[in-house]
Structures are given as C-alpha cells and as structure tokens.
C-alpha cells in the first residue's frame, strides 16, 4: 500500500552523540551521501540530513542530527535531543578516552529524552586496527550490560555504516508498529 495515499508518514529523529572527532559527521556523510572527508571542519549550518529508507514497503524518513561541534564544550542543548527516537552513541576504537565518555553520553541522553530511544553503541574507525585501544569484546559486553545494539564501523572504508543506521531505524519502526 502507498502510505502517502493512506496519510501515513514516518519521520524518525535520530541523534549522533559522542566526543569530538570520533567521526560523527563522517558517519552521517557516508550514510547520506557516500562521502568521506579527511579534514572535516566543525559542521556549520547543517543541523540534520534526511534520508529516505524503505521498511516493509513503507517509506520512512530518517532525520539524522549532527552536532555543530558543541560537544567540544559539553554544551549539547536540550533542543538537540528533543523528539529523538533513536541515537548512535559513538566512540573511536583508537582512543580509549572516547569509550570512557560513553557512560556520560548515555546519562545525558536518558535525562534529555522522556520517550524510549533506540540506541546503538558505535565503535568507529575500525580501519585503525593497528592502533586499537578498545577491543571488540569490551565494546560488545558494555553494550550488552547497557542494553544497546553494538557495531564497529568505519566511515573511512564504509564498513557497517549503512547497517548501523538501518538497525536503529528498523528498531524504531518495530517499536511503533
Ligand atoms: P566528529 O567531530 O565526531 O564529527 O568527527 P569527524 O567526522 O569530524 O571526524 C574527525 C576526524 O576523524 C576527521 O579527521 C575524519 O577524517 C576522521 N575519521 C572519521 N571517521 C573515520 C574512520 O572511520 N576512520 C578513520 N581512520 N578516520 C576517521
Ligand atoms: Mg562533527
């Protein structure tokens, strides 16, 4: 059936969170435009990108929000989280400190959102195997403890980027239908 004709519309707000330079903006540009930028500047002007995905024959619009670099100052605002139904919580597998920040990001997420949020823990930069500081097992068991989906990705070589977003979108869809 045609959901536009049926008057149904699915618009899911998904937020990207995690420390500065873990690769949030590149995950989004890889997902939305299949692009990677080796020298990303702080995002200016673009608040979110909308990507259309088909699930069970239905058109779902994923509105994915990226920070404008506010995370550097720990100043991500409540407006950023408002209405979010999904989140990719990102760390960099080659920088242990970014993994240690995840607890704080999860706390901020849960205090800022009152509805259930589909959450995926993302260990990005898995192409940097030679300088890895967080093992896959560690990421996986932390995610299990916290009840999160888990995936290691590379925005650089595109490993699992599409899949990570799609799992979150599918989970949101399952939660509401
Ligand atoms: P953000 O601050 O979290 O938005 O991070 P950016 O997307 O701006 O990326 C920060 C830096 O990490 C940039 O130099 C990117 O080119 C680099 N980067 C992002 N993703 C990857 C990845 O998957 N692998 C590698 N090797 N570098 C990445
Ligand atoms: Mg960014």
UniProtKB/TrEMBL annotation:
Name of this protein: Uncharacterized protein
């Amino acid at each position: 059936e045609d959901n536009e004709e049926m008057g149904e519309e699915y618009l899911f707000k998904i937020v990207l969170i995690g420390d500065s330079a873990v690769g949030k903006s590149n995950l989004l540009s890889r997902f939305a435009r299949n692009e990677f930028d080796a020298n990303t500047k702080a995002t200016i002007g673009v608040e979110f990108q909308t990507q259309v995905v088909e699930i069970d024959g239905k058109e779902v619009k994923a509105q994915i929000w990226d920070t404008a670099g506010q995370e550097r100052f720990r100043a991500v605002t409540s407006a950023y989280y408002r209405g979010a139904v999904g989140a990719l919580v990102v760390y960099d597998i080659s920088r242990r400190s970014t993994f240690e920040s995840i607890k704080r990001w999860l706390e901020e997420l849960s205090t800022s959102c009152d509805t259930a949020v589909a959450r995926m823990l993302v260990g990005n930069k898995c192409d940097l195997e030679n300088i890895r500081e967080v093992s896959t097992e560690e990421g996986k068991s932390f995610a299990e403890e916290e009840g999160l989906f888990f995936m290691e990705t590379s925005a650089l070589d595109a490993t699992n980027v599409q899949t990570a977003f799609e799992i979150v979108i599918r989970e949101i869809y399952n939660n509401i239908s």
